[in-house]
Write a structure and sequence with these properties.
This protein is of the alpha/beta class and 207 residues long. It has a single domain, classed as TIM Barrel. It contains four helices and ten strands; from the N terminus they run E-E-E-H-E-H-E-H-H-E-E-E-E-E. Strand 9 and strand 10 form a beta hairpin. It binds iron/sulfur cluster (SF4). Iron/sulfur cluster (SF4) binds next to loops.
Amino acid sequence: MVDRVTEPPTLNVPPGYLNIMGYVDESEANGPGRRAVVWVQGCQRECPGCFNPSSWSFETNQLISIEELAEKIASNSNNEGVTFSGGEPFWQAPALAELAKTLKAKGLNVMSFSGFTLDELRAPSAPPGAIDLLAQLDILVDGPYVESQAIHDPNSPVSSRNQRVRVLNPEFENRIDWASDRIEIHVLKDGTRIITGFLGQMGLEDD
Ligand code: SF4
């Protein structure tokens, strides 16, 4: 039987590009310090209580080249890093690994959320390129959001008790200082508001 969560989805993304749901230039609610956040488009899990159901579709939403996104992220000198969220970042692992490599070469650190567990990402059945992306990460928050195990603690860096913060670079052991319940609202030029931080996810509102 095909497992709809682990069976590779059909991606219509040209090489060298990412299909993203959104991008925020500067955030303090999605990882250590100030960082850019990239929400990729597409996730098959459909977790009840997901704060971001509009990220589920794998249809093309916003295509952006790795090069352009790297330039955007690196142009904000306030940021120490970037966080990948979703959607499921690991379904676009090869492109994110390339983006991460470019940004790490510029001195930025890289963190990612994933609905997969670390063991699943290291298994032969992992999404293509998962090992390459893991090799670039300083921090991984793994595991899907499980509503029945939700945590509503302003000091918790994860949203449900099954999730784990995996410090993949020991330099970040004392940097687990963000809170998943913290909410930020960003107003974009077109009037769209992005609400981020809650459940480590993103919501969109039109004016
Ligand atoms: S909570 Fe995360 S893993 Fe679950 S459906 Fe939403 S984006 Fe996907």
